[in-house]
Amino acid sequence: MDGIILQILNGLDKGSAYALIALGLTLIFGTLGVVNFAHGALFMIGAFCAVFVQRLLNLSFETVDPGKTDFLGNPSMVKTPYIESWFGHDIGSAIIDWSVPLAVLFSIPVMILIGFVMERGLIKHFYKREHADQILVTFGLAIVLQEVIKAFYGANPIQTPAPEALSGIATLADGIVYPVWRIVYFCFATVIIGGVFAFLRFTTFGMVVRAGMEDRETVGLLGINIDRRFTIMFGIAAAVAGMAGVMYGPINAPNYHMGMDFLVLSFVVVVVGGMGSLPGAVAAGFLLGILESFASTTWATTTIPGINQIIIYLVAIIILLTRPRGLLGKKGVME
């Protein structure tokens, strides 16, 4: 039983990332009708926002430490972060330690701005084009973005450690222990997903957006600038992907190809949940995360070698053959 609980926790952990990325993908497809293959790159850029903030907070200057000498007897030079010189050692060290959560705040305006630039500068020109054209141009954009990141930060993963207070192991029950940050990530994902759904359901802006997703032309005839609201939703979707990437950094060290690693799986999640269905994207993300976790157990990989690599695609094939619209998708979208 303990092993089953641990596999469910692992599935919820990975499923949180799938659900957050798939949620943004579905928001964009549902509002703009665009298949955005650059969405994984937004997840990657979010992760590197954490890298940027960490390096910014660790900028330091050298001073002479008269209490220490090198092997020649000369005074040693020590590095002192600027943040510690401004706020004192204790507060400065705490700010540096909590660089990842602080990077979430930094990533929100950055990712919204990037989303606006992407949508207004490129993607809006492909609204009325075939989905194949949208996939090609956004996939090309994703490659460009990841190469830009590679040029600035290199090809090797960069560690972005979690705060010391949240980097340990939590005892959930007798014999069940689990990393604290992974629990934090799941809780964070739950809050973000709940916030997006609440925004769409209980705010006037969100209600108009949902109405526009159902019947864009009628909403436009009412004198509402639905295009502007959809552009804002693109920025929100980018921010969701960026925050997901920031918080995932301590789990999987940011690297330039992490966006592509998650992108394909997230599109599978969207298809399984149902194109355009927000609840379907979230439900499928957690479901496939749990299935992948159980398929990665020793028993599963011994019984069917490689099952952990193909389980998600097998599920997608079965869903597409039996229910093309997806688990919670609307009739006529994929048929």
TrEMBL record:
Is the keyword DNA repair assigned to this protein? no
Q: Where are the transmembrane segments?
A: 16-35, 42-61, 102-123, 183-209, 230-251, 263-291, 303-321
Biological process per Gene Ontology, one example term: amino acid transport
Q: Where in the cell is it found?
A: Cell membrane
| Keyword annotations | Amino-acid transport, Cell membrane, Membrane, Transmembrane, Transmembrane helix, Transport
| GO CC annotation | plasma membrane
- Membrane topology label: Multi-pass membrane protein
**Pfam families membership:** BPD_transp_2 (PF02653)
- InterPro entries hit by this protein: ABC_transp_permease (IPR001851), BCAA_transport_permease (IPR052157)
GO molecular function: any one?
Answer: transmembrane transporter activity
Please indicate if the UniProt record lists Transmembrane as a keyword. Answer: yes
Which family, according to UniProt? Belongs to the binding-protein-dependent transport system permease family. LivHM subfamily.
- This protein is called LIV-I protein H
